Amino acid sequence: MLFASGGFKVKLYDIEQQQITNALENIRKEMELLEQSGTLKGSLGVGEQLSLISGCFDLQEAVEGAMHIQECVPENLELKKKTFTQLDRIIDDKVIISSSSSCLLPSKLFAGLTHVKQCIVAHPVNPPYHIPLVELVPHPETDPSTMDRTHALMKKIGQSPVRILKEVDGFALNRLQYAVISEAWRLVEEGVVDPGDLDLVMSDGLGLRYAFIGPFETMHLNAEGMLNYCDRYSDGMRRVLKTFGPIPEFSGATVQKVHQAMCEKVPADPKHLAARRKWRDRCLMRLSKMKREMPSK
Length: 297
What we know:
By secondary structure, this protein is an alpha/beta fold. The chain has three domains: 1-57, no CATH class; 58-169, Rossmann fold, CATH 3.40.50.720; 173-265, N-(1-d-carboxylethyl)-l-norvaline Dehydrogenase, domain 2. The protein contains 13 helices and seven strands. It has helices spanning 2-5, 17-36, 46-51, 59-63, 77-90, 106-109, 144-156, 173-189, 195-210, 215-221, 226-241, 252-265, 270-293; strands at 10-13, 53-56, 68-71, 96-99, 119-124, 133-138, 160-163. Helix 10 (215-221) crosses helix 11 (226-241). It is an enzyme of class 1 (oxidoreductase). Its EC number is 1.1.1.45.
């Protein structure tokens, strides 16, 4: 949907024909809803965008003439490596192979490929239509032009690409996310706060601020600039950080406590979870629209 919104012709490939059939139907429904709500991306109408997307049941046919391949198979290293090996045999020297992996290292994903210079991780954030961030992570042998071309493509389709300058486990987004999850878990485990109130700390506290500015700009604005912030608060930050505990096991009594609290809010059955995801996506859609309308300065 994002690539089509930028006017690009898109071929969807899967080993199961029904997956493609379902995807095309879901895309049609979703685009119509987006158009009705005034949040369809790009300058083309629904009909024009849908005409750019087709299904394909042969891998070689799918990548023929392509300038960019976005791999989206499950987060399984062996499955992804198998897919890249198949692609490596049939692509030319111009197309970019991009993985949607959320934390698998490019050095492992693309090891031994002939076209490794054309390979990169372009990790989107779920749901990518409403959350524009894309982490670009190169293999040590990735050609700089591959990073530049992917960056330009993501900008063209309305995403917000960031360059991860060298590979690190979890990239940037998940390292930050896991740090928050880890401390959130410890605070509940140690009886400091209940799970529901912990979520409020983020949704009605930090999350509101972070929807528009990041931690560094927050520091910069919460004092007379970054230097002043560090002069004022660095001692307190170091003192608190020294009290952080070990990495949680994410099991035992705490997982039961957190699970029960979450189920009281959203029962863990397919119907309720799906409804809550739709609510989440609508919220993100409205926030995304507001952010686009807000001046950046």
